[in-house]
Amino acid sequence: MKIELIANPVAGGNARSQIDRAVAWLQARGADVDLVLTEKRGDAQRAAADAKAAGFDRIIAAGGDGTLNEVVNGLAPSAVPLAFIPLGTTNVFALEVGIPFDLERACEIALYGTPRPVCLGLADDTRFLLMAGIGFDAEVVAGVNLRVKRWLGKLAYLVSGLAVLLRSASANIEVVDEEGCRFQGCSAVIGNGRYYGGRFSITPKASLQDDALEVCLFRPQGRLGFLWSMIKIALGKSLAESEAWRFKGRKLTVTGSRAAVQLDGDYHGCLPQTFCAVFGELTLIYPAE
């Protein structure tokens, strides 16, 4: 099997040694591995775009969710299967589909797993695999210091979140679905999968196998009310109807007070933006049934 391995050598603490182990493991099973190491943002997307027509049987992304997002944007639309080896801080996609964090087991799935067509989210002209965040969580993502993230890991998001909560006023957001129904709120998560930021679940009915996105649109309730909603999510408790709107849609037009947007954990500008569900543009490798 001819494989393109696109890897981020600074994802997590010892990514480079894990990448070398992954190459050795794959080659020991007869795979012809072409390794591309990323150096800066955009490298993974360019490598995936170059690999589309290069005759590879499989492309493997090794890194965090940000690396995977870049590869998705470079590869889709394509029939070349894409696998994932989790090396990053959170690795929500790995949790979503059941890819283990043990390197050899993840490599085994990447090589022998089951290809499945999936749904992707589209924010204007940029794809996302897992989620889009609008308002609060996008400001948190934008405010994370990369040096602090390498030192504290997930706690860096908590530090940024507290800072955003204390300094920022709530955004005014309106979401209009494909049927023209209008919903107003102060912050939103548009999910293409169940998990968010780890094993937290804000869009529990979202699925990569569905052709629609699930929206959780938080209703205005003040700083303390919003903080309580975040605590409930962290504790695995359900939100009340008075706290958030929940609905699904294939096309969502989102406008508001130039609220920030993040896609799969990376900042992506401000509103207004249109979000769509697009099924079948990409085939991902799942653990074998």
What does this structure look like?
This protein has helices at residues 15-28, 43-51, 65-75, 92-97, 103-112, 136-143, 146-152, 155-167, 222-234; strands at residues 2-7, 32-37, 58-63, 82-86, 114-123, 126-128, 131-134, 173-176, 182-185, 187-191, 195-196, 200-201, 213-218, 244-249, 251-256, 260-263, 266-270, 273-286. It is an alpha+beta fold and 289 residues long. Strands 6-5-18-15-8-9 form a 6-stranded antiparallel sheet. The model has no long low-confidence stretch (mean pLDDT 91).
Task: Name the features.
single chain, 289 residues, six-stranded antiparallel beta sheet, 31% helix, globular
Provide a concise account of the structure shown:
The protein is 31% helix and 34% strand.
Strands of the largest sheet, in order across it? 6-5-18-15-8-9
Topology pattern, helix = H, strand = E: EHEHEHEHHEEEHHHEEEEEEHEEEEE
Relative helix content: 25-40%
Strand content: 25-35%
Let me know the largest β-sheet.
6 strands, antiparallel
User: What do the pLDDT scores average to?
Assistant: 91
How many H/I helical runs? Answer: 9
Shape: globular
List how many beta strands DSSP finds.
18
Distance between the termini: 21 Å
> Measured on Cα atoms, how large is the radius of gyration?
19 Å
Structural class: alpha+beta
Low-confidence stretches: none
